[in-house]
Prior knowledge:
Elements: H1 3-36, H2 41-47, E1 55-57, E2 60-61, E3 63-67, E4 75-79, H3 82-89, H4 100-104, H5 106-110, H6 119-124, E5 132-135, H7 139-149, E6 153-159, E7 166-172, H8 186-195, H9 204-207, H10 217-227, E8 243-244, E9 251-252, H11 266-272, H12 275-285, H13 287-297, E10 304-305, E11 309-310, H14 321-327, H15 338-349, E12 353-355, E13 360-364, E14 370-373, E15 380-382, H16 386-402, E16 414-422, E17 433-442, E18 445-455, H17 465-481
Parallel strand pairs: 1-5
Antiparallel strand pairs: 1-2, 3-4, 5-13, 6-7, 6-18, 8-9, 10-11, 12-15, 13-14, 16-17, 17-18
Helix pairs in contact: 7-17, 10-12, 10-13, 11-16, 12-14
Pfam families: PBP_dimer_2, Transpeptidase
Protein name: Penicillin-binding protein 2
InterPro entries: Beta-lactam/transpept, Beta-lactam/transpept-like, PBPA_dimer, PCN-bd_Tpept
Amino acid sequence: MNKTIRRASVFTLLLVFALLIRATWVQFYDGKALADDTKNRRNAIKTYADPLGNIIVAGDSITGSAATKGSDLKYKRTYKDGKLYAAVTGYASQAYAPTQLEGIYQDLLDGTDSRLKTVLDTVTDKRADPGNVVTTIDPDVQKAAYDALGDKKGAAVAIDPATGRILAVVSTPSYDPSSLTDANTAGTAWKKLNADSDKPLTNRALRQPLPPGSTFKLVVAAAALEDGLYSSVDEKTKSPDPYTLPGTTRDLSNENPSAPCENASIRTALQYSCNNVFAKMAVNLGQDKVKAMAEKFGFNDSAQDVPVRAYTSVYPSDMDRSSTALTGIGQYDVTATPLQMAMVSAAIANGGKLVSPHMVSQITDSGGDVLKNYDDGTSTKEIVSSETAGQLQSAMQTVVEKGTGTNAQIPGATVGGKTGTAQHGENNSKTPYAWFTSYAKAGSKQVAVAVMVEQSNAARSEVSGNGLAAPVAKAVMQAALK
């Protein structure tokens, strides 16, 4: 064999060898990336080749699967009372990535979770029968919140303080997840939902932190009692009315000019929602102590999973004293979700202990065998002492009995609450946010609720926590106590 042929042979063998290496690389490395690519239709074909597992509320499936016609995607997701439960379920779509519980438990619901596989499934490489997600949602409480919010733009969250079980998560206006399930029609629905100025796809209960207004005064009061700044909710404070913000000439006024806010006790200051008292209290404590208490309740936690990850509620840092004063009334850069404010009331109602909130009780295989029990895995953290919690409960009851929260009164039940009307826009130029956070107890039952109304048809002069949010909270609490 002459030299030229030998060289050509070696070069050809090198090319073949390079081709084999490349083929192996594509098959075993790039292949996985290609297989996992969300744009790979084979994934959707595989996911929707069989019915999906279901999301369960009180023993009943609120999801299902329906056979399709004329498509290589044999099944699509269906929803029972889709608008009612959208803030819980999210959506599973043939065209878009799943969200909320549908997204978190996608592998369980489509049968690809390794915990579902039997020995035979492993040998035959067959997809396992899908599992189910059992929620903590109480259908009566969920419906009460949804109906009470009605055509208002807002949200509500209800928690069992003793167990951390989330009984309701509602965001309005809502949307029907069924409109997004079919690849043939999802695009049109998606454009319409995203073009809606009311943003129905936004989960306001978990993922829209807004200024909490005077509901945050509970956190400041808790810090003052725990720190020893005041020994009792009935001790007089040193609070001039009006209170001039430190370093400024601006006087902080109260909503009710005739309220007895000068040197008012914490109880009276909560009853009448005295801004001067809590602004000065925040300054006296200092931003670090207020921030520490806020963080004990859950503010600034970037990993608040229930198991859907809630957006972070924020208590700011590095402020001057006048800004610290404004945080004392839930303004400046303080923001909170309804979930966060429900957690504040839940901890106070539960003797100062916060049980980690969760809206999934169990996940099971197709036969109902429990793969994981979340009720058994809750953690409990002491936020304030039982003595502080008892004093705050008493003061919150005064708010409902004869203060700014009388619309939340429930005959035969002990109810405590705090109203909030948070400024919105520069110089409060836009409609304020109406808040109410509360708890109720009757017999062996109890519940903590937070309601936020972002927008309603009410005249601006009628926007208040008591006028808009407290009646919603009352309806939710009544449903939970039944």
